[in-house]
Each structure stands twice: as structure tokens, then as C-alpha cells.
Amino acid sequence: MLGLLGLAVLLAGRFLVADDAYPALKRLRTEIGGVEADNARLRSENEVLRASILSLRHDLHTVERLAREDLDFAAAGETIYLFPTERPTPPER
What we know:
By secondary structure, the chain is mostly helical. It has helices spanning 2-17, 22-58, 60-71. It contains three helices and no strands.
């Protein structure tokens, strides 16, 4: 029993001072924390995207708004006026 306890203490000491044991474990725990944070961020982003997909599937007003704003579509009988977002630069003389 005493020999087994001595072996456990020896292995624990080796683990704590070895170049690749404890520092590697600490580094991996830090990396896991970063991965978990990324995972949480991606889950949140997925929820936003799922809500957007549901809105596009079931809400015609959302589809119409996107068609008007992003694609410059118009309903029948409407006229669209487009204005440039940037001023053209005059030619150099």
C-alpha cells in the first residue's frame, strides 16, 4: 500500500514538472474555452439565421421588402427612382 502511494506521488510530481504535461493541459483548457466561446457565438448566429429563414418562408412582407430594397423591384404600376450613392469624380485637367 505504501509503495502504491509512493508511486502515485512520484507520478503526480512528474506530471506537474514535466515540460509537456501540465503546461499542455493548461493550454488545452484555454483552447477549449475559446472553442466553447466560438460555439456559443455560432449558435447565436444560427438562431438569428433560422429566424430570418422562417420570416422569408412565411412572411410575404419580408420578401417584398427585400425585393424592393436589395433588388430594386417594383409592384405593378410603380415607378422606381434610383439615385447614385457616390458622386462621380470630375476628370482631371
